[in-house]
Design a protein that fits this description.
five-stranded parallel beta sheet; FAD/NAD(P)-binding domain; alpha/beta; globular; seven-stranded mixed beta sheet; about 550 residues; single chain; Polyamine Oxidase, Chain A, domain 2; binds flavin-adenine dinucleotide; Guanine Nucleotide Dissociation Inhibitor, domain 1
Length: about 550
């Protein structure tokens, strides 16, 4: 008889692990609190007149605004392709130094856009160019597209003094990418020994200093320092605190490009659910887990908030790390210092995200699909968000306009967009019931006043927003963190929550709360690492 597994949560990490466990022969059930899958990648659908948020099964004959609520920048398409290629009995868990999937026939790393044969049976991925447009507060901008020639041309215009520095940065970031991502990416740091083995290399690569100070070695202009350090914010990392190993993000994007799933990231999530179910897995929505049942220090199953008990040979939490340990595991089963460990963990920042639909008639938008709009301050703003935990007067934002690529995401004659502003997590005690509405008006007003979306307020058909309270209350994230434990040196690798529990047998973690960290490629890696541990434990 096959062994059974329960996964708590249907985020991208939970779904990826579900696919992998089915391919390993485990009968897997995913239990999801919400009424639809995706977690941070949940989809908000709104009626054509903008007045109503629809439930997952509802439609509107006049069209629907489709808002991906979370991830929009899809990188590393071969991770996705690998998941769609799995079958029962074909689990693909081998880990050569350089994964075969990234090497071409000549054994060199394949670069460029690729959707993948198996992926295209389920979802259409398209390249996005430029990757990002980065607007500076003085109105100038930088289109980052990974092409060395266009990068050099723009640096020559904006900061000619940094041309040489860019060449050196490029070489050193590549070395970090090769060691940190290609060779060590899938390493589960379950013991100190594994960690100690890699430290000398990281020191040699100068990858343990903070990313921002790393960029300062190569660039003198503030603009270039921002361009080559902001990306970690998309995975919850403060450029002033994440180790420079995160310079690899720049290279990951450059190597395999940035993609968009037609129909939105929600279409990718739907495709993962389809794949999981085709392999025989089952998924239950509106099923919040209230506790993990443990006997003799071994996970035996879970209890749901409705009182139902389900048993399984192993349990995995894809939910928030702190919430899982503090709320789902009874105190008597926690390791003696588990609570302190959880509470001492620094949580990542939170987000204020506005989803908005607007009329597009006679409107020429001078925007790209992904736009980073930086405010007047960089370092001090980051200190306000991560350190001082105050809501500053100024802000930076990431404006996503997917209808520039896929007009089907809005009713005809409209755009659907979201704009995301990093804010402190709920350790700040900010009252979002009071702050939310004026803050959303200020941000949309800024987009209109600065000419990003002319006439936006008159054109607006729908506006709704989420605050740190959504992350805390709806997604069960401790202090309303948006990305799990903050990726800092002292919370990375061995120091990040382990994918195999150290306290409870047959209990595992997958996703942004575990190793290697947050972001969609990382949570897919996390699923592969967790599947390997489970395979080892259940030989
Ligand atoms: C606004 C936003 C934008 C982002 N943009 C990008 C991007 O462009 N590119 C990128 O790579 N990354 C991005 N990220 C990060 C990325 O979305 C996340 O790191 C990743 O999706 C997290 O996936 P996960 O598997 O860890 O789980 P999550 O998505 O956190 O899902 C966890 C699931 O567990 C469920 N759950 C929790 N507790 C319980 C319980 N007790 N019972 C049952 N279910 C429970 C939750 O409802 C949720 O569905 C973004 C994140 C946000 C918030």
């Amino acid at each position: 008889m096959s062994q059974s597994a329960i996964i708590i949560g249907s985020g991208i990490g939970g779904l990826s692990l579900g696919i992998r466990l089915q391919s390993l022969g485990f009968q897997t059930t995913i239990l999801e609190k919400l009424d639809a899958p995706g977690g941070r990648a949940y989809v908000r659908r709104v009626s054509a007149d903008g007045s109503r948020i629809l439930n997952p099964l509802e439609t509107d004959p006049n069209g629907v605004f489709t808002f991906d609520m979370g991830p929009t920048v899809i990188t590393v398409p071969h991770f996705i392709e690998e998941l769609f290629s799995l079958e029962v009995g074909k689990s693909n868990l081998e880990l050569p130094d350089y994964p075969a999937s990234v090497l071409g026939d000549d054994k060199r790393i394949k670069t460029g856009f690729s959707s993948g044969e198996n992926t295209s049976k389920y979802v259409k991925l398209v390249p996005i160019l430029p990757f990002y447009r980065i607007y500076f507060d003085d109105g100038s901008h930088f289109d980052y597209d990974g092409d060395p020639e266009s990068t050099v041309r723009q640096i020559r215009q904006l900061a000619p003094e940094d041309l040489q520095g860019y060449e050196r940065f490029h070489t050193d970031a590549r070395a970090i990418f090769e060691r940190g991502f290609l060779e060590l990416g899938y390493t589960h740091f379950g013991d100190v020994g594994t960690m100690l083995k890699v430290v000398p290399d990281l020191i040699k690569l100068d990858a343990v200093r903070t990313l921002f100070s790393f960029t300062k070695k190569y660039f003198t202009s503030d603009k270039m320092r921002q361009v080559f350090s902001f990306e970690t914010l998309l995975v919850g990392g403060n450029p002033l605190a994440v180790p420079a190993i995160y310079a690899m993000i720049h290279f990951v994007e450059k190597t395999w490009g940035i993609h968009f799933a037609m129909g939105g990231t929600g279409a990718l999530v739907k495709a993962f659910v389809q794949k999981f179910e085709e392999l025989g897995g089952s998924i239950r929505y509106n099923s919040e887990v209230s506790s993990i049942n443990i006997e003799h220090k071994t996970a035996r199953g879970v209890s749901l908030a409705n009182g139902e008990n389900l048993s399984a040979n192993l349990v995995v939490s894809n939910g928030d790390y702190a919430n899982t340990h503090l709320k789902l595991i009874d105190a008597k089963h926690r390791f003696w210092n588990a609570d302190a460990r959880v509470k001492l963990t620094q949580q990542s920042m939170s987000l204020f995200v506005i989803y908005f639909g607007f009329k597009s008639d006679n409107l020429e938008l001078d925007l790209q699909h992904h736009n980073i709009i930086l405010g007047p301050r960089y370092e001090e703003l980051l200190k306000d968000i991560f350190g001082r935990k105050i809501l500053a007067k100024d802000f930076s934002q990431y404006l996503h306009v997917p209808t520039l690529t896929d007009p089907s995401l809005a009713p005809e004659g409209h755009h659907a967009a979201y704009t995301l502003v990093p804010v402190p997590h709920n350790g700040s005690r900010l009252d979002w019931d009071l702050l939310g509405e004026p803050f959303s008006n200020k941000i949309l007003g800024f987009l209109e006043d600065r000419g990003f979306i002319p006439g936006l307020i008159d054109r607006l058909v729908h506006k709704s927003f989420i605050t740190p309270d959504y992350f805390e209350g709806t997604l069960n994230s401790y202090l309303g963190n948006a990305f799990g434990p903050e990726p800092m040196l002292v919370q990375s690798a061995y120091f990040r929550p382990h994918n195999r529990s150290q306290d409870v047998k047959n209990f595992y973690m997958v996703g942004a709360g575990a190793q290697p960290g947050g972001g969609t490629p990382s949570v897919m890696m996390s699923a592969k690492m967790t599947a390997r541990l489970i395979k080892e434990d259940f030989k």
